[in-house]
Amino acid sequence: MEAVQFNLLAVLLLSLCLVVPFTLATEVKYCDRKADYDVKVNGIEINPNPIARGKPATFSISATTGKEISGGKMVIEVSYFGWHIHSETHDLCGETSCPVSTGDFVVAHSQDLPGFTPPGSYSLTMKMYDTDKNELTCIGFDFDIGFASSVADS
What we know:
- The chain is of the alpha+beta class.
- The chain has a single domain (24-148), classed as Ganglioside GM2 activator (Ganglioside M2 Activator Protein, Chain: A, Distorted Sandwich), CATH 2.70.220.
- The protein is built from 2 helices and 9 strands.
- The protein has helices at 2-23, 92-95, and strands at 29-30, 39-47, 51-53, 56-65, 72-80, 83-91, 103-112, 120-130, 135-149.
- The strands form 2 sheets. Strands 1, 3, 5, 6, 8 and 9 form a 6-stranded mixed beta sheet that branches.
- Belongs to the NPC2 family.
- Monomer.
- It comes from Fagus sylvatica (Beechnut).
């Protein structure tokens, strides 16, 4: 009887280990918690999570807006252990379909990280601006880059 209970417990623990990584959500924080941004972020999906060095990573940001957005830009800042290490600017219409109608929309950005990217925890801040340079939203979130790398695969 103890062997059956042990096997059942082992199967349950293994199942949890397989399911939990897929259910973890990326916590999003607004840069200014008191601001009433025109774009509200509902969630972020990072694929794969953790990110693998030397392989493509996709950040999909689901959001809602109460006004139509004809265009604009996204400014991305990345920090590693508190040190600013990377900045980039993207045309908003290159990351989602424009014009963005009122309601739900998704901004998706894919990028290949070099195989020599150090593993660890990173912080990303994303600001979204309309064509008149009004800040539509500003969010921050953390993500991890794993130890796996495709450098050996090359």
